Batch of 3 targets.
Target 1
Amino acid sequence: MPKKAEILFSNFRYRVEKKELTRNKIENLLLNNSLDESDVLTVYDGLFLGLFTDFEQLLEELFWGLLEGKVTIDGYKINEIRKIKISPQSEINSVILGGQRYLDWLPYNKTIKRAEIFFHDGIPFNNLDNDQKAYLGRYHKIRNAIAHKSPKSQADFDKIIQNLPLLPSQKTPAGYLRSKPRGQETQYEIAATQLIQIALDLCIINV
């Protein structure tokens, strides 16, 4: 029996919440002088990479699950979402991958273009508003600045923070993610909350 996309969302939220426990733990260790700030910043880099990888995994599981008929969204029958049925199912990978070893899900327009080929109206991947797509674009650039450290990825990150009132120590990806633009919430926490909402909008559609 197909599982509900709601389960994919719940699994993603659980992984985000586990990371938040880790984040709180390392902040407390810093307060107790058990860690240096450089150690904490390294952890922030790792947490954000993990957070973004988990979100990409959600996109992948949702796409493949809907296409294979193994995932359903409440309020929709499988064929109300799926535009194309590939038969036999053993050929799905070769058709979708087209000789590639894996699919890129971000930048998000890649996911939308792919979804519009295989799903009616790109459902559910077209369910995001422009602000949410902009958040994904911003977080993807921060992810690249952490993972690649190339001149281009650094330049893209610098554009994100160029007009923000940040201290010199906050002008790195980890420093930025640890900064608090709204009082008590870090940029990392804000990103995690927004990704949870985006995952919710992808997996649970109010019809």
Target 2
Amino acid sequence: MKRRQLLHHASLALGAAALTGIPAARAGQFTGKIRKSLKWNMVSEGKNLPLVEAFRKLKACGFDGVEPSLVDVKEDAVESWIAASRESGLIIDGTVGGRTENLDAGIALTQRLGGDSILVVARYDQKRPLQEQWDLARDQLKAAAPLAEKHGVKLLVENVWATFLISPFDMVRFIDEIGSPWVQVHFDVGNLMRWGVAEHWAQILGKRSQKLDIKEYDLKKAMNEGMAKGFSVPLGEGSIHWAAVREELAKIGYTGWAAAEVKGGDWEYLTDVAQRMDKVLDL
């Protein structure tokens, strides 16, 4: 179709929308750039259904992918997970539950499932010297990087509540000491609110942020009711300045996956979570 015809059809469509009162479709800042996933343990009603049916329902809720824990996928069920993903179109974009000390099996499983990342937690024993644990975790990830590259699976270290890597500068130094593009960051936007400001973390981490975990945190609720209670608010109704986070993500040209990591619920609730992700991420 020639350019003049395309413009003509576009003007007709806009005119029709105006006449019928139907608003023209709006593309958000990250429409087509961020895809929505969620943690499998959020799917309360999925455990009672055939896997492929649960996957289809997640697609209907508005998700593009799912991230199971490595322990969720038993060896005798791997092919079922692969088939459910293929038949439903719901992508297993990655897995969670990796530990720095034992990654070989998880890397192989994630590749079989079609995922391209493992969310890795660097654990911290406060009874042992900090530098000793830093060096150990760094060296374990550095040693695992060649296998990760071979299988095409990135090892993404998450900022968690382990009182380890609690500053973006800590995380940057840790990742850069490993020195591999196959070991980067799974940036949890909510977890850091205990110690910092979400958009500042996004700015400092820069392109090291390869995937996102999306949750809310309310500082007032945390102060009044306990630290963990800060998470018990719906997406978009807490203390995170989402517009500022998006601004920093836009500066690095972020594209890729964002996974909801909130409490589980039924299909109606998960649909609401997906819609709230649309709003906070401007999809």
Target 3
Amino acid sequence: MKTKLTAVLFTAMLLASSLGANGQMTWGDAINKIKLEARADGELFTTDSTPNFGFHGKYFNLMLGGNFGSGFSYYFKQRIIANPGSVMFFDNTDFLYLDYKPTANWRLRFGKDAMAMGGFEYDASPIDVYFPTTLWNNIYCFQLGVSGAWISDDGNHTLVAQVTNSPYINSTGLSYDAGLVSYNLCWYGTVGHWQTIWSTSMIEREWSKFMNLTMIGNKFVFDKWDIYVDFMHHALSFDDWGKNFGVVSCANYYFTPEFNIFVKGMFEQNKSEVDLNSAVALDHLLRAGHTYSRYGLGFEWFPKGLKSVRLHTYVCRMQEWVNNTEIDNTWNFNIGATWTMDFYKLIKK
């Protein structure tokens, strides 16, 4: 059995190195994991009656995780893609961290991790997100850094303090040693049917100049349905307060454990008067003067209750305005499949 496990680990690591390089953050105990997951979509876009369509691979991820013992564990998640990173060696690595659990209530973590931010759309694994917000698309959320977490005795509340590289390093093509950082505070909570992911971040965009990003996520979970509502606000200066914000909501209704229908909608705006001229000062989340709207519905189906196979389809409308003038009105029709190959379960069998 050990020989088989070693062979699979070696093969998986070889595959990741030869091909190259959203829940996102979890503070539960590490689970032994050797997985490959993939998603492929077929899409049709129509703008002004002009169709664009085709099939494409969406995600292909390798995941490895486990325990060293004595409170130490690890997790590794690699996007297996051909293009190399432009900023640093770990660009296409989502997770690569060492986790230490000195007591039942405290966790320390060092390495590549998701930035500790609120919102349930943000917190979901990217492979599970459909027609995301513009902010979700534009933020480089996987960063190297250090985190500390306090977990309540009942496990219902987790407070996280984190320092990472600033996502402005990726946005502007700076070197990872540019000295720009992000300070993040986040609360993950569960009170009955109500779940929360609230955060505030100070993201350095150039030396000693920051963007404040506040994310307030609320989710209500019941037997047959759930709904989340995320509010997002960011400001580069005091003049920006109240001008740049977004809201996204998604509701699921589960007819059976195998089939659910979802409805999702979002609105985002940046009402700053002008874009700042320098690249490091530019608002990389939402462009100044722009307003965005997306809404749609779809369904997910797990054939015969197989959690490792998921089929989906959705339709959504995407609109964009600049200073109240519409510049985009696109319909998107999507079908796709997601499947997970769990080698650890295979080895145990």
